[in-house]
Amino acid sequence: MYVPAHFAATPEQIHELLTRPAAADLITPTADGLVATFLPLLFDPSAGPQGALLGHLARNNPHWQSPPTGESLVILRGPDSYVSPSWYASKAEHGRVVPTWNYLTAHVYGDLVIHDDVAWLETLVNRLTDQHEAGRTPAWAVDDAPPKFVAGQLRAIVGVELRITRIEAKAKLSQNRPEADREGVVAGLLAVGDEAGAEAVRRAAPRSSAASAFGSLQQIGHVGRAGFSEEIQASLGTGGQREW
Fold first, then answer.
1. Beta-bridge partners for 34
2. What angle do CA 81, 86, 89 make, to 5 degrees?
3. For 65, which DSSP code?
């Protein structure tokens, strides 16, 4: 992933992407080409030295039957938003502004492991259900369904585990704009009902240089047991603060 230093994601932002209840794209290289599936995933920081992403596929899905020829990839996405140059205060000052797109994303690489094991799958679907039902009233639980029905459903799926080897992450959230422009972006996003995008811009701390970004990562260190700080440090690139 192309990651200019001023758009390098922080460990906190990466941890947020890993742990938020969401679905993502799992992409695997095979002898027949790339295979991709969109599926909900659960982050387990205790699985291996850098954590793992756990999920399941339909047994009829050929994705799990094709041996990977290299690292698999999961693409995690946070808020993303169109940014109109009309929101920038600098538009009135000099007019040298263009549209852009804000986003938070992480490319999570790892070794894909298949789990054709009912006990493993039963634990996973309970954990996934608990995560997504949290805060709901009433909350549904796997035990609410008849045991024979659940057993049949478990036989129809196969577990997947992406054992994380490295993470590249980018938070392009108007950090390169002057404060007045960032305030305009927040106001503009709120005006169109994009509260998540506005909050992401608010929370993104501007960084003046690659050195300051690298230093902040060293101070923060690892988040949980994900072990991604070194990977992000390695992904810090160079480049001018451009919109595109």
1. 29
2. 105
3. G
∠ CA 170-79-15 to the nearest 5 degrees?
Answer: 55
For residue 25, the surrounding DSSP H or E stretch is strand 22-30
Cis ω for the linkage preceding 138 (within 30 of 0): yes
pTM summary value: 0.83
Structure confidence at residue 48 as a pLDDT band (50, 70, 90): confident
pLDDT in tens, 173-195: 999 999 999 999 999 999 999 99
CA 229, 197, 107, 63 dihedral sign is positive
Query: How far is the CA of 36 from the CAs of 27, 53, 56, 62, 155, in angstroms?
Result: 4, 15, 13, 10, 22
Nearest to 178 by CA among 92, 82, 103: 92
Residue with tokens 């993104």: 204
Asked if the model's pLDDT at residue 86 lies above 80, the reply is yes
Residue 235's pLDDT is what? 38
Q: How confident is the model at residue 14, as a pLDDT? A: 97
Task: Find the largest Cα–Cα distance for the chain.
Answer: 69
Token pair of 2, please?
A: 């192309």
Separation of alpha carbons 81 and 103, rounded Å: 6
Q: Where are the beta strands (DSSP E) in 45-156?
A: 52-58, 72-83, 100-115
